[in-house]
Specification:
The complex is a heterotrimer of chains A (422), B (270) and C (285). By secondary structure, chain B is an all-alpha fold. Chain B has 12 helices and no strands. Chain C has a domain at 65-254: MetI-like (MetI-like fold, Orthogonal Bundle), CATH 1.10.3720. In chain C, helix 2 crosses helix 13 and helix 10 (192-220) runs antiparallel to helix 13. The chains are: A alpha/beta (422), B mainly alpha (270), C mainly alpha (285). Chains in contact: A-B, A-C, B-C.
């Protein structure tokens, strides 16, 4: 036992060392911590941007800390930290569905100055709606995401079908092509019990004129929604254009199936485009992209995704934090990040920027999509709402419940959640 | 016939344990373009690009170093605190022995998802945010129940007279523990130590919550940071899995060999 | 015995570990218990003491009972399989003379791979379209996406992962059995099966209890692996108590109710442990 003691002490000492702050800030400067989910690719361009900010604002240093990219992990992290009133970070990147929740919980500073009313039209309307809670703005949109329809233009040409505009057309086209092309799935999307399923389902419901919440009331259980979700279930069970394994599919598995050339249509986010346009991809040059279809009498709807910048209510340096938010959301910063990472800026003007369009021509197509993209129900209780929806929608896709039963149950639970708080 | 059956059984078991891991190895050597395609099962050409990527794109070496430090400290501390406690509970008269054992066990019965928040509060209050020390303390605490129970078990199986004899012969309590009791419980020590090491090596929830920067990042958090916004780099994850698992396996093999040598050399008497 | 009492103070041996345990766990556990008696959510204004209301809500919550059933099923099946397989593996390693250390290291592989990684790996292996399992077997089973298969697929993954844990413990137990016992049995002419049933297993019983208890505790608290594989779906068919607690705590931000769920896990596990202890006592008599 005594032999181990010195080794133990040495080891503990070595472990304690990192507890001491090795590179402290230079005296007189504030260190602002920017917490965000991992951006794809190299960390260097973001760091260069932050260095530029430091040059423009002497006395402020920015430390950026990454969180895992998964939305759930980040939400968990923020829940623990913000509930504990932690000042450990100042600026945070917030998912579009959390802003109302965090604002209601008193975790974010109001950012009226960073996003005054006259500047709001510079951003897409969807994100602006999502960051507004009770008339006040709590985050600045940073980058956006929305659902798209990918299709195999080579297969459509081969079998002489036009790009579908309505869901019915999509189903019929998929059935016809599947009959003539063995081994091809008609339409792949995300049907696992997770947030992505809600994104998919909303696109059906909205494109049929349905809605989840309206003026704070639950309007989920309506004929339009039932019809829309019945179609979603039929894709799997009646038309059989979607494989039953959709119930475990998320973005990547569905992207891979399409990218291996084994599907005709894919609903996914814009990130997949870059991967399909890689010369090594099996579907290189064969992929087209368009707005999602709609039902007769409805309009195409895409679910809005993306991230916004906010300031921690318990930050020790809110002013410096606001400056950083303003800087990162500015036109030059968004443009630089778009060029470096290929992410889609939240500012409309950049979609007409010649330099950006030259580097990423895809943005021209995306502008239309983002302009019409709709945020998921903006309520502080959205995450709870989503959980209820995920469960019931999953039952629909798995064929365990009819849309009527599922929507009735979901509506009942949603009313409980929302009434609870009144 | 018997040995053929046994060999077949062994092969089956080894196959069962290894097969998914083998799939990881194959994946880690597949070029990016072929990562998801089946066929081919075996890649047409092997590439080390994923292994290079995990070290180039992330400070993975440092991350492995952090994990090694944390796991080693945790194991030493858990055994160092757990062995005496187990010894007392099994070989000495302790009133309320059952209650103590039950209480120690009760600690491990709460789901970590519930305890992570208050622990975070406490560690923050103590100024241990983003340190490896916080992890060592936490991991040791949650490893102690298994270590104590396991070692208490093994100590209890040893004859009491052995210990008494050693004391009569003039050993201090500590010395008797170290020189007589522990060597006889070597298999139990190895099991407890290895399981503690692996727990500390692979733990994710606490590591994710209590650390923020690379200074205190451990392997599971490092791997959790591989995926981008939507993309999951399966090749890199597979390469990382292979890289971090093999040292543990080597460690286990080495220690087991020493145990076996110790046993066959007659350390375990009847 | 008298000698020991005179010469040793058990307290000194128990104190360091005891202090650490108390220091680190008393606050969190107490806090969880305290939270479970409150309505505590940043979305509901200041916290309010509500006594046992959370537990009453629990009892009426069908999602809780669903999660409880899933958890019990998961724990029962996986622990049983792990015990049997672990015993087989431990016996095999014990009987091996050559290459035992290597065998040992290899067996450890599933337990040594980080859970987050092996869960992703299995998720991919199970994928109905591009997964290697369906490819090799030539079938098109929807492992993770059909309510009938999903929980069993998760069990299969857990058994793969956790059997080494049991094997490790049982092997250590086997290695501690003195050789004399076997020699005596051989002299008495006992057959292999008799030795196993009458001598080995009873001597292994205490270690088996430890393995059983700890595996049950872990199975009841299972979270990471299932969350990555299925997220609790499809249609809540794989939602375990820990996943439900996680969703309530960190997604729903209901810290009071979530803590009550955590306490319910504790209660279940404690009951299970008590059952095991009773069974062991009866079996050994």
């Amino acid at each position: 036992m005594s032999r181990w003691a010195p080794a133990l002490l040495l080891a503990c000492a070595a472990v304690l060392l990192p507890a001491c702050d090795a590179d402290g800030p230079t005296p007189g400067s504030t260190v602002v911590v920017f917490k965000h989910g991992k951006l794809f690719g190299d960390a260097a361009p973001l760091r260069a941007l932050l260095d530029e900010f430091e040059r423009l604002h002497p006395g402020i240093m920015v430390r950026d800390e990454t969180l895992p990219a998964g939305s759930d992990e980040q939400h968990q992290f923020y829940a623990i930290n913000l509930q504990a009133n932690s000042p450990a970070f100042d600026v945070l990147a917030v998912d579009v569905i959390w802003v109302a929740e965090f604002a209601h919980a008193g975790w974010l500073h109001e950012l009226a100055l960073e996003l005054p009313p006259q500047e709001r039209s510079a951003f897409f309307p969807g994100p602006i709606e999502a960051v507004t809670h009770q008339g006040r703005v709590y985050a600045v949109p940073w980058f956006v995401d929305a659902g798209l329809l990918y299709y195999r233009k080579d297969l459509l040409e081969k079998h002489a079908f036009p790009v579908p505009r309505t869901w019915d057309e999509l189903a019929r086209t998929a059935q016809a092509v599947m009959a003539r092309e063995p081994g091809i799935a008609g339409f792949v999307w995300q049907g696992k019990q997770y947030e992505g399923l809600v994104c998919n389902a909303l696109e059906y419901m909205w494109s049929n004129g349905g809605e989840v919440l309206s003026a704070g009331r639950v309007v989920l259980d309506t004929p339009r929604n039932r019809e829309a979700l019945a179609f979603m279930a039929d894709l799997v069970h009646r038309y059989r254009v979607t494989p039953a394994s959709v119930t475990s599919a998320t973005e990547e598995p569905s992207r891979h199936v399409f990218g291996q050339g084994r599907a005709l249509f894919l609903r996914n986010w814009p990130y997949a485009w870059r991967l399909f346009q890689d010369p090594r991809s099996r579907v290189y040059g064969k992929v087209g992209v368009t707005l999602l279809p709609h039902f007769e009498g409805g309009a195409s709807a895409a679910t809005l995704g993306g991230w916004q910048l906010a300031v921690n209510r318990h930050s020790r340096y809110p002013e410096a934090g606001r400056k950083l938010v303003r800087y990162l959301a500015s036109v030059p910063a968004q443009k630089r990040l778009a060029l470096a990472y290929g992410f889609q800026p939240a500012r409309v003007a950049l979609y007409r920027d010649p330099e950006l369009l030259a580097a990423q021509p895809f943005l021209a197509t995306l502008e239309r999509v983002f302009a019409a993209a709709r945020p998921r129900p903006v309520t502080p209780y959205y995450v709870r709402v989503s959980q209820v929806l995920q469960s019931e929608l999953s039952a629909i896709v798995a064929g365990l419940k009819t849309p009527e039963a599922a929507l009735a149950a979901a509506a009942r639970k949603l009313r409980e959640i929302l009434a609870d708080e009144a | 016939m018997r040995s053929a059956l046994r060999a077949a059984g062994m092969a089956l078991i080894i196959g069962y344990c290894i097969a998914p891991f083998l799939w990881q190895v194959i994946t880690s050597l597949k070029p990016a373009a072929e990562l998801v395609s089946l066929p081919p099962l075996i890649p047409t050409r092997l590439t080390a690009e994923h292994y290079a990527a995990i070290f180039a794109g992330h400070p993975f070496l440092r991350i492995i170093g952090n994990s090694a430090l944390v796991a080693a400290c945790t194991t030493l501390l858990a055994l160092g605190l757990g062995a005496p406690a187990a010894f007392a509970l099994s070989m000495l008269q302790v009133r309320g022995r059952a209650v103590i054992l039950a209480g120690v066990l009760a600690i491990s019965m709460f789901p970590p998802v519930a305890t992570v928040s208050p622990l975070f509060l406490a560690l923050n209050a103590l100024g241990l945010h983003d340190t490896l020390f916080a992890l060592v303390i936490t991991y040791t605490t949650f490893s102690l129940p298994l270590a104590v129970w396991l070692l208490a078990n093994f100590f209890a199986a040893l004859p009491r007279e052995l210990y008494a004899a050693a004391r009569v012969d003039g050993c201090t309590a500590c010395g008797a523990l170290a020189r007589v009791v522990l060597p006889l419980a070597a298999p139990g020590l190895l099991a407890a130590g290895l399981l503690t090491f692996i727990f500390a090596w692979n733990e994710l929830l606490f590591a994710l919550t209590f650390t923020a920067t690379e200074a205190a990042r451990t392997i599971p958090v490092g791997i959790a940071l591989f995926p981008g916004l939507h993309e999951v780099p399966y090749g890199e994850i597979a390469a990382a899995a292979v890289t971090v698992t093999l040292p543990v396996v080597v460690l286990a093999t080495v220690f087991q060999r020493r145990i076996v040598e110790g046993l066959t050399a007659g350390a375990v008497k009847g | 015995m008298k000698l020991e009492r005179e010469l040793d103070r058990p307290l000194w041996y128990l104190l360091p570990g005891g202090l650490l345990l108390a220091a680190v766990t008393l606050f969190p556990l107490g806090y969880v218990l305290w939270l479970s008696l409150q309505r505590h959510s940043p979305l509901h204004g200041p916290p309010r003491f509500i006594g046992l209301d959370n537990y009453l809500r629990l009892a009426a919550d069908e999602r809780f009972w669903n999660a409880l059933w899933n958890t019990v099923y998961f724990a029962a099946v996986s622990v049983a399989l792990e015990l049997v397989l672990g015993l087989v593996i431990a016996l095999m390693i014990e009987r091996t003379s050559r290459g035992r250390a290597l065998f040992y290291g290899v067996i450890l592989l599933p337990w040594a791979v980080p859970t987050a990684v092996s869960a992703r790996m299995w998720e991919w292996m199970y994928d109905a379209q591009i997964g290697v399992l369906n490819y090799l077997a030539g079938v098109h089973v929807n492992w993770l996406g059909s309510p009938g298969w999903a929980l069993n697929a998760a069990i299969a993954m857990d058994v793969w992962k956790s059997t080494p844990f049991v094997a490790l413990l049982l092997l250590a137990g086997l290695q501690s059995i003195p050789r004399d016992v076997y020699r005596a049995a051989a002299v008495d002419g006992a057959s292999g099966w008799t030795v196993l049933a009458r001598i080995t297993l009873p001597l292994l019983a205490p270690v088996m209890l430890v393995a059983l208890v700890f595996r049950t505790i872990d199975a009841f608290r299972v979270f990471d692996s299932i969350y990555v594989l299925t997220g609790g779906g499809p249609a809540d068919s794989t939602e375990t108590l820990s996943i439900y607690a996680y969703k309530v705590l960190f997604q729903g931000l209901e810290f009071g109710y979530g803590s009550a769920l955590a306490v319910s896990v504790f209660v279940c596990v404690a009951l299970a442990a008590l059952c095991y202890a009773q069974l062991m006592r009866k079996a050994l008599r």
